[in-house]
Amino acid sequence: MRYMLIMEAPESMRLGEPDAPPAEEAFEAMGRYNTDLVDAGVLLAAEGLAPSGDGFVVTHDGETPTVTDGPFAEAKELVAGFWILEVASREEAVQWARRCPIGPGVRLQVRRIAEMADLQDIAPAEVLDAEATLRRRVAEREQV
Questions:
Q1: Least packed by Cβ within 10 Å: which of 28, 33, 46, 123?
Q2: pLDDT tens column, 13-33
Q3: Are residue 71 and residue 90 in the same domain, yes or no?
Q4: H or E stretch covering 95
């Protein structure tokens, strides 16, 4: 099973002084956590995200999509980073999520990633075939 751990935090939250990089201890704790994930063989991907000022939102309220540049001041919490884990069970995902070194004011949302089997009774056969083809193409690209 694959799970996505989504770190949500107020963008205004900074470790240490305003506009200062995060404290060395936070980097070290996160590095240890990521190393443990790799050593356990469960980490598929992990990334931190740049501030929302570097991002944009696309909305589609009619015929033409609208692009709005960040920052996203209206959001209380923003996605600050994520991990994708492959684990044997929900319980294992819970264990890893509990170990994540997030601090006060930070929330870790954990979501199971839907597998092809989840779509079997929902999507038409041609959609499932097309999705399987796309997943094979992505897997082939990753092997290169």
A1: 28
A2: 654 445 545 678 888 999 999
A3: yes
A4: helix 90-99
